[in-house]
Amino acid sequence: MSAVAGLRAGAPVRPLPGGRVFNFSAGPAALPLEVLEQLQHDLVDLHGSGIGILEHSHRGPVFDELLAQSHAAFLRVAGVGPEWAGLFIPGGATLQFGMLPMNFLPEGGHADYADTGLWATKAIADAKVVGKVNVTFDGKACRFDRTPREDEASPSRGAAYHHWCSNNTVDGTKWTVAPRAAEGAWLARDASSDIFAEPLDVRGHGFVYAAAQKNLGPSGMTMVLIRRDLLDRGCRKLPSMLRYDEYEKGESRPNTPNTFGIHVVGLVCRWIERQGGVQAMQRLAAERCGLILKAIDESGGFWRAHAERWCQSPINVLFRGPGEAIDAAFVAEAAAQGMDGLAGHRSTGGIRASMYNAMPVAGAKALADFMRDFARRRG
């Protein structure tokens, strides 16, 4: 039975407006309903122009205004000053795994990378194609169930930059303190799953990037924050589509950009502002996570969290029951109760509740209640 069918059959979980379900997918993830409703209109008629967002010229006056508005909204929510440039770049965060070192890892030099999970591992692999990488922390030894403790990921002398992934979606861990960069270097942060879920601290950073499909918008594009003084420091000749300075010069339009995605990011950023900004998002994330962790703690050992509690992600909570069959049954029953996307990543298994900014607290409460009910029935 599908989630929607389960809801219509009279399941106890109350659906969202329009028969929508609680979407716990890690990405593409839930978007605010009012943003989706605005997009329904804008697909047909954007800003009263009689032309939908998918049809507008990326060089026309209507999109010029939209681009400026989305760009300004993103920088406002980020809370950064004029020394930072904000770029809309296609390709998702994975493109940045190679694009970052191609621009800033010089031949004969090296960069520091902390390996705290699947996506950090992939970033390291792609950086090694470009140049030398020093791994400052190897989480494989602890099965990626924790992030480094303070000063555990020590930088190496002469590193160009120090790359880290602040929130690890696959394993449900989060850094509690940012790593240090070597003297004269800067931090590069993959903030794909926690951008705008908390105030953005850019101290010591030169570069922050985030795939859009978790907290910002649709898949297939990435938001990049880069210190302006780095824009002209590219260490090798590259095609225009791989150069950050070309995106800045062309207002994120070195070619025809993802016009729809840019519009969605702008709408989501303005939605965040209306909810009270990133401080409100942080409070809600803590509340949602607290509900799930409490259900785990009250299960008498039936549920076990993957991450060590001190570095538990408030965004992605990974847990499992007594066995794979139990986990699979839970995911199936939860879907029938209107809670979708709870299967863990294929590399880890288990159950994963991804609760990004658009997830209502009611969704976390519904999941926590169902976890208790399931444990009572199966424990």
Could you provide a short overview of the structure?
By secondary structure, the chain is of the alpha/beta class.
Secondary structure layout:
Layout: H1 3-8, E1 22-23, H2 33-42, H3 61-78, E2 84-90, H4 92-104, E3 110-115, H5 118-130, E4 132-138, E5 161-165, E6 167-168, E7 173-174, E8 186-190, E9 205-211, E10 221-227, H6 244-249, H7 259-275, H8 277-297, E11 304-305, E12 316-320, H9 324-336, E13 339-340, E14 351-354, H10 361-378
Helix pairs in contact: 3-7, 4-5, 7-8, 8-10
Structural summary, described in words:
The chain is α/β, with parallel strands linked by helices. The chain has two domains: 3-9 and 277-378, Alpha-Beta Complex (Aspartate Aminotransferase, domain 1), CATH 3.90.1150.10; 41-273, Aspartate Aminotransferase, domain 2 (3-Layer(aba) Sandwich). The chain has helices at 3-8, 33-42, 61-78, 92-104, 118-130, 244-249, 259-275, 277-297, 324-336, 361-378; strands at 22-23, 84-90, 110-115, 132-138, 161-165, 167-168, 173-174, 186-190, 205-211, 221-227, 304-305, 316-320, 339-340, 351-354. A seven-stranded mixed β-sheet has the order 2-10-9-8-5-3-4, sandwiched between helices. Strands 11-12-14 form a three-stranded antiparallel β-sheet. The longest helix has 21 residues, at 277-297.
